[in-house]
Amino acid sequence: RNYYGGNWASFSFSGLLSWIKENQEKTDINDECEDWRKLILENEEVISLSKNVKTIQHVEDFCFVDQDSAEDVEEAGALPKLPSFGASGADGVAQESEKECPPVECALQEAESSEPEKATGTEPASAMEGKDTEVTSENESSQSTALGESTLQLGKTEAAPSEISAQEPKKITYSQIVREGRRFNIDLVSKLLYSRGLLIDLLIKSNVSRYAEFKNATRILAFRGGKVEQVPCSRADVFNSRQLTMVEKRMLMKFLTFCLDYEQHPDEYQDYENSTFAQFLSTRKLTPSLQHFILHSIAMVSETDCSALEGLQATKKFLQCLGRYGNTPFLFPLYGQGEIPQCFCRLCAVFGGIYCLRHSVQCFVVDKESGRCKAIVDHFGQRISADYFIVEDSYLSESVCTNVSYRQISRAVLITDQSVLNTDSEQQVSILTVPPMDLGKPAVCVIELCSSTMTCMKDTYLVHLTCPSTKTAREDLEPVVQKLFNLNTEKETENEELEKPRVLWAVYFNMRDSSGIDKNSYDGLPSNVYVCSGPDSALGNDCAVKQAEAIFQEMFPAEEFCPPPPNPEDIIYDEDEIAPEETGLSNSPEAKPESSSEESSSRGSTAVQKEDKEK
Asked: According to the UniProt entry, which residue ranges have a biased composition of type Acidic residues (predicted)?
């Protein structure tokens, strides 16, 4: 590919149009070098890799604004953002920084504490509404997971949902979208980061967080009775809510408090282990509206497939993540989810890792006697040897995947002219779960991003819809889009349609979900070849982190996964080994920061920690 991140990538608008065209045409890739088979020895055999990526299907894009004036329009030239290791987008050009809505960096700083869940200091969090201020959560007590004041007293920076903006949405044309295309960073996969999830912990531990900025998801929404409502999450939200009666507020707080330590009260849920979470909620003296909020907007689980225990675990996870960085459990990386793999690439590059674009691989070279993979052969006919090989599932040929059964993810991306729930602030990052429209249909996760997330141009919103596939993406998601948005052209006349946000442009596509597949399902893979999946359909990133750590520990059981790197100023290189090795394939220098002034060296480089002040 000519872009970073595979199916985790983010694109500018023109980059996404190129990606759409590429996947609609599905052109075959021909070998550039036919002589590579001469590199294979008699005692070796090859496992050919797939020449075509087949993880994306049923790509359909639609424009709902006039395109006549956009025929000769090109993306406006823009000042790039800070130089980075590999910019997203098919054109490989870094996207422009959006000065009108300055972002706020959410520094992911590890709390200094003797226990992982405790913190003695404050933790910076990104400010709401994209203002250049900093919101910090209260000091987390030893019972940081309790539904108490220390966790849930947050800065009140969010507008009341009932205050509807009277301002009319500005008219956006297709030519404007094309011209401002570099302001878009459109993710192929839509996810959020749980503030106490595995990825946040890894970003902090490995110090990869230095390369990224984050913004809080500012509100959790629910779709009930044909209307979008804001869900109260924190203690303050619950008691300030006008949607709930005083009795409902007490019911909700009592149930959420129970969920935080449900393990201590097994007698209250053991009788429902074979029941669904929805059935369990119906026994807890909760009103239908509270059951809806908890099931779809807090636990975010299936009404029919989720057990009572799984629902309690999901609810507890949601509550534990409240208050660490903001008023909701979620963070979103500025410039899109595609920034996250690039951040790891940047740190990898600092220590000698190489990422090659437009560089395809023909095959694995396997030793017949040992059965281990010895090398790969690239499309230039170059043979590259290594001890371990990691391949993404999509590169494996059909002959290797004959026994593999894949799931599919239905995705839609919309550009709209206003929010699904207007307030007096335009800068909202919202997550909404739409319950199944029909029996057998999955719930749909909707994430709406404002311009201060650096993913869309000013006066527009970028909306991601995701669900497990039952049919094509358009068949799965268009009914939800029609419920929430106006799909008519500018000459619409129905009053109820006029009240909805208008879709300016949309794309639907199905993406392969290869998560959860056992390595033994692949036929004939050598023991030192490891397979990682593409994105899964879950909201968080735990699956990818667990998979990466499992593969790493299988290869290097005695090593720490993503250890904290030394500070650049603490690294001293020997004069005779400053020049990098010609192959560029040497192991990265290892250094573990300790409170010591001793030097630890690895492959010619020495990480020297600063001497203690006392010395």
From this structure: 571-580
